[in-house]
What does this fold into?
Amino acid sequence: MKILNLYAGIGGNRSLWGNQHKITAVELDKKIANKYKKLFPDDNVIVADAHEYLLDHYKEFDFIWSSPPCPTHSKTNYFTQHIRKRPVYPSMKLYEEIIFLQHFYKGKYCIENVISYYDVLIPATKIGRHLFWSNFNIKKIKQSKKDIGTMDCKYGNTACKILPEERNAVNSELGLHILEQAQGIIKSETINQTELF
It folds into this structure.
């Protein structure tokens, strides 16, 4: 499959996907993108605005994973507003991408974010500390408490210390679980289309 991994970070969600797919990762921060490239040298890593990249390239991929920045949606944002002296608007890029993919994208997608401090505007699937929006049913996965919503540092605990902003990355087993479900549906749809001809 051709996979687009948006807001890739250092690849917590991607860690167990293997190298049998053609993966394009988009990350705005060059330092983080360089770390991702060291961890996954076979991936095509692009330093760019993932939100804009999606608009220009969405038709090129079979599966899209997007993890837009979560700070403006998180409960932490709500409870720490006094530190900033005023609250901030939740970024609507999250919902822009959900609506865009729902209406324009023909492949399978999964958009991940944190559980928000407000009632979500579009229904989502909750797993651990994350919400997922997709165009396929994401089955629940059993995980130990320490694994839910945290990075699985199989690529070394130093990654968490070097890039602390990545500590809340999606656990790699959960990332694989979701990819495998999407892949199974894509294969099934391909077989059904072939049978029609």
Notes: The longest strand covers residues 108-114. The radius of gyration is 17 Å.
